[in-house]
Fold this sequence. Notes:
The complex is a heterodimer of chains A (221) and B (266). By secondary structure, chain A is of the alpha/beta class. Chain A has a single domain, classed as P-loop containing nucleotide triphosphate hydrolases (Rossmann fold, 3-Layer(aba) Sandwich), CATH 3.40.50.300. Chain A is 37% helix and 14% strand. Chain A contains 8 helices and 6 strands, in the order βαβαααβαβαββαα. Chain A has helices at residues 26-34, 67-71, 87-99, 115-127, 145-159, 171-176, 193-203, 209-218; strands spanning 15-19, 50-53, 133-137, 163-167, 180-185, 187-192. Chain A is globular. With 266 residues, chain B is mainly α. Chain B has 11 helices and no strands. Chain B has helices at residues 8-33, 37-57, 61-82, 87-108, 116-121, 129-158, 160-165, 170-192, 197-211, 215-240, 244-265. The model of chain B has no long low-confidence stretch (mean pLDDT 91). Classes of the chains: A alpha/beta (221), B mainly alpha (266).
Amino acid sequence: MILEDINLDIDTRDFLAIIGPNGGGKSTLLKLILGILTPTKGNISKIESIGYVPQNTNINTDFPIKVIEVVMMAQGLSKRKFFGYAKEDITQAKEILKEVGMLEYADKKIALLSGGQRQRVMIARALFSKPEILILDEPTSSIDAEGQKQVYELFKKLNEEMTIIVVSHDISIIMGYASKVAHINKKLSFHDTSALATKIDTQINHVCEVELLEMLGKCKC
Amino acid sequence: MLEALSYQFVQNALIAGVLVSFIAGIIGTLVVVNRMVFLVGGIAHAAYGGIGLALFAGIPIFVGTSLFAILAALFMAFVTIHQRDKIDIFIGLIWAVGMALGIIFVDLTSGYNVDLMSYLFGSILAVNQEDLYYMGGLLALILLALLFWYKDILAVSYDSEYASIRSINVPFFYTLILILSALSVVVAIKVVGLILVIALLTIPIYIAQSLSSSLLSMMFFSGVIASIFTLIGLWFSYSFNLTSGASIILISALSLMFFILLEKLR
């Protein structure tokens, strides 16, 4: 995948939506930010604390693991204990589960959860390290409408405390929640959603996803 | 049946059966959740090359087989990490080449008179004191590895991409799981033979999976279930004078069918 001349500045408390066609380089950009890939030229300022929610959270659904174990996964090498988990880790995990509305499921097997519930557990896992930036790859692609709504409301709440970057095709995220939109198709164009909203109001009455994506791809607003 | 228990070889067989069942339960759990069943199957068959080599070179069978299986595991770990999409080809490769090497080594060994069938289908009644130490030692090693790295192994098994982002050394843990699997295969060969080893590493685990809410309890239940199957299989084999390895596997398979039927009815 080739990405050229990507310059992306994000401010704190931004809600950035990254959109673009399949194969346009969205996931590559995320992997660069996360440090899974390194750029051949140029650099990416090291971001200290990132919480990451991967694209497909429906993998390994049979896996025998409790919700709270998923949340505490791969954390705090300093606070390690054999087998069991440190008390402060468990307390923190429960607080975060409460924040995402999943506390009552803490000791349930992950396999028993719905898509939307599982997504909230993955968000809780990303929040465990108290990140400044939360990065989500297609967070609503595999969950039903009711689950999506709950996840959006959660983003809104979390956005008060942290920066959120979302890769999404989902129009309701872009229109309803994002403060900035970046369109990636090998190159990057940047948009402010408030300008976009005005444009849509004045020019067209009806907007569908394809038109919006097209507009964001072409215009230099 | 009771007077049989007074024989040393029967006692050894029972202890070996339980030890190997717990080894297979723990390692089988890791193999199943990491989707490595046929990878480990490949290593099991490749281990036959080690049996041939040990006979040819006149070194103890356990030593030769273990070394050979570890080499196969390291090779497969390398392939898993660097050429994941070609893994099927390499499984087939080590599977066949390992067995071919074993047969050639046996051909080259002068005055060869060891029963080939006992390696292919197990010879639990021939377990000696030394074998038991090896099995006990391996179980201790596996438990020690779990004690140190349970949480890392859990993270790597559940979501390896996320584990690597959280700076867990995923290749190291893949290699560790494969090496422990290779060593477990070597001891399981004694009980059920290398052809049937896959069944011991999967059937009890399948049943345990739906009963468990954590990886640790799945390992424990798998060990208990495998022990029950092994002991019933041994009794069956003793009572009807049948091959022990095949009896254990068939008892396991019948129980699995019964279990699935029960689950469907519920």
